[in-house]
Design a protein that fits this description.
This protein is of the alpha+beta class and 414 residues long. It folds into four domains: 50 residues; 138 residues, no CATH class; 71 residues; 115 residues, no CATH class. Helix content is 26%, strand content 27%. It has seven helices and 21 strands. A hairpin with an 8-residue loop joins strand 11 and strand 12. Helix 1 packs antiparallel against helix 2.
């Protein structure tokens, strides 16, 4: 897309002044052009920027404040006073004893994760006695439950759902022993070819914190029926861009957010305690050991996206498609060589947008839609997060699938 560049009036005038040989004329022109006219140009530029910002503020972004970020850390490095990051599952901080379950994080690409899962079993031996143990490899159910609850909260609070980049969660595996083992055993796993990829004692974090609040007051406005209004104070933490998701059950009629408080309208006089989930935005904090890659569904903000969302129009053009891919790329450098529409069949090595599978939505029982095939090319990437490259492409496809429902969106990495 064409990017408008600002005109540097001051440097332009300084460069052109050097073309005037007469020093007196140069001095006079400098006073006129950089003095009087320069101040007028600066004032005009400031007014234009203020007008542009005002228009941007009027065209609000519905998902601003509700962006989800994820990362992973070593369990020993978790900082409970970090203002941004919180564990996705509290049980990850203190694993339950007696289950024998071992959680690992696999720093491998999508194909490697599939091969590891297909392996099915992992062998280990006790550090002291050498007793052999066999573990089954399964996907953790607790993270799927957390994502399903998050999706439900978005729906209950009438916030537009945006695909969450779950690349980190997909790389967690639980190793469950095939038989009951003593807590005294210290398993040493025989990873063989997986040694460079396996990380133990790693936990996932995201930018959501949950608090249980009690109602401080209530009013009872009544027109045709009794409706109770309850006020919950969320406190002076976070910043003005943070979003709130309220978990108050099914009896809530409406939710209104005001500065540092949440107001619920219910049909019950005493709704009891509620949970308020705060989605932190902005500064991600600086804690020791927080050096792993951050995956986010943050979008590059631009006027076109705000305007199209405000008007409710969606322009399905090649330029709009490329703009959306660039908007969703995040910190990854992802190139697009083109696209094509196929009536049926499949494409060799294709990637699918499956990061919203936990929502359970199936629009087409027998999917006969045409394929929208996007062709990506791998650009130079930071080696530290190279194993997440295909996950980012799948995230892009997952979000595009929500917006291009008439096609089945797939991608090919060339």
């Amino acid at each position: 897309m064409t990017e408008e560049k600002e005109f540097d009036y001051e440097n332009y005038i300084k460069r052109r002044l050097r073309e005037i040989d007469d020093l007196d004329e140069r001095r006079y022109a400098k006073e006129l052009l950089l003095g009087s006219l320069g101040e007028l140009a600066a004032w005009t530029e400031a007014k234009y920027k203020a007008l542009e910002q005002r228009i941007r503020d009027d065209l609000d972004n519905p998902w601003e404040g509700f962006q989800i970020s994820m990362t992973v850390i070593d369990r020993a490095d978790y900082d409970p006073i970090n203002p941004f990051w919180r564990p996705i599952c509290e049980e990850d901080l203190k694993p339950a004893k007696g289950s024998g379950r071992v959680s690992i994080y696999l720093m491998a690409d999508d194909a490697g994760c599939q091969r590891f899962m297909a392996q099915g079993k992992a062998e280990a031996a006790d550090r002291e006695t050498g007793q052999q143990m066999c573990y089954s490899i399964i996907k953790p159910e607790r993270y799927r439950i957390c994502m399903e609850r998050l999706h439900t909260l978005f729906l209950q609070n009438h916030v537009p759902w945006q695909t969450v980049q779950t690349g980190h969660l997909e790389r967690f595996f639980d190793l469950v022993p095939d038989e009951t083992l003593s807590d005294k055993l210290q398993p040493v796993f025989q990873w063989e070819d997986w040694v460079p990829y396996v990380r133990q004692d790693i936990i996932p974090l995201w930018n959501m914190q949950e608090k249980v609040l009690q109602s401080q007051e209530f009013r009872r406005p009544c027109i045709d029926e009794v409706v109770y209004e309850h006020v919950y104070y969320v406190g002076e933490y976070g910043n003005n861009t943070d979003g709130c998701l309220v978990d108050a059950g099914d009896n809530v009629r409406s939710i209104r957010y005001e500065k540092n408080k949440v107001i619920l309208q219910t049909s019950k006089e005493i709704p009891g305690d509620i949970s308020v989930c705060r989605l932190y935005q902005g500064d991600k904090g600086n804690s020791y050991g927080y050096h792993y890659s951050v995956l986010s569904n943050h979008r590059q903000d631009n006027f076109a996206a705000r305007y199209l969302n405000h008007t409710g129009n969606f322009i399905q053009t090649p330029a709009e498609l490329m703009r959306k891919i660039e908007e969703l790329s995040g910190g990854f450098r992802i190139g697009v060589t083109g696209y094509e529409i196929r009536q049926k069949g499949s494409v060799a090595g294709m990637l699918e947008g499956d990061m919203n599978s936990f929502t359970g939505t199936q629009v087409f029982a027998r999917d006969q839609r045409s394929l929208l095939v996007l062709r990506f090319c791998r650009e130079e990437q930071d080696s530290a997060c190279d194993y997440l490259y295909k996950s980012q492409i799948r995230y892009i496809l997952s979000q595009l699938q929500l917006e291009f429902m008439e096609y089945r969106c797939v991608g090919v990495l060339e």
